[in-house]
Amino acid sequence: MTTKNLPIYQIDAFSDVLFAGNPAAVVPLSTWLPDDVLQKIAMENNLSETAFFVPVTAGNADFHIRWFTPTVEVPLCGHATLASAYVIFNQLGFEGDIVRLQSKSGILTARRYLDAIVLDFPKQPIVPETLADDVIAALGGDTPVETFGVASRDTDLVAVYDDAAIVRSMTPDMSLLAKLADRGVIVTAPGDKTGLDMISRYFVPAIGINEDPVTGYMHCVVAPYWADKLGQDDVVGYQASARGGVVACKVVGDRVHLTGEAVLYLKGEITVPA
After folding, report:
1. Cα distances (Å, whole numbers) of residue 41 to 46, 72, 210, 213
2. pLDDT tens for residues 175-199?
């Protein structure tokens, strides 16, 4: 079999230190590989997401970006976009402070800001939806005060609690949640520490991720909710996974600006079929 080598980076996103935040693999490409090869690379990496991007020579974007979990392609991923922007800015010699990324969720932008990167993402609207009893049981049995579905990604559910301790201590039955036919579950509550407006977690065992450590997309769901509840545009979220991470959010019309840092963990090469 003829093979070729490609560069790969692993970045800890939404963190300013190693071994925290959410790790993502980033594979820059000159041209697209077959979809099945992209999926196999993501499966081999076995991280919550692997991002791939190619240069764009026409239109209003600099790169075309795609994201894969170990099992499926997804339409939007915040932490892997942050990781990709970090690679573009710090490893690939990109000139300029703003990079524009074409994606399945439209044009996304990433902007340098001091030591951080600001992502400009679409707000993810929610609509009231009743959670089935087996979902609530799988989450531990505590009754949410409100429940929703994500309108733009109808596979995801949202459970709002009135106590951050419920969210922090939750130990879901992942085998039950994995039976939800590709549905992920976001759980969120008011912040419980100074400087934190919201506490959230994101469980998606149905697509190969028991719990995503720090999720940009999820904050495009919960930030508008809490901004409306609190009457303020700027909200700070903490994702209470084992690794944990802080995401500063600003709701601007139908967009959400997510600010976070990133750290290089690994730089190397992978071998793929030519």
Report:
1. 9, 12, 19, 20
2. 999 987 667 999 999 999 999 999 9
Specify whether the CB–CB gap between 15 and 273 falls below 8 A.
no
Is 49 designated active site?
yes
Q: Are 271 and 5 in contact (CB under 8 A)?
A: yes
Which residue has 């301790």 as its token pair? 165
pTM of the model: 0.93
Query: For residue range 209-264, what is the model confidence (pLDDT) as tens digits?
Result: 899 999 999 999 999 999 999 999 999 999 999 999 999 999 999 999 999 999 99
Domains of the chain: residue spans and CATH: 3-122+259-273 (3.10.310.10), 126-253 (3.10.310.10)
The catalytically annotated residue of 49, 146, 261, 269 is 49
Q: Could you count the other beta carbons within 10 Å of the beta carbon of residue 181?
A: 7
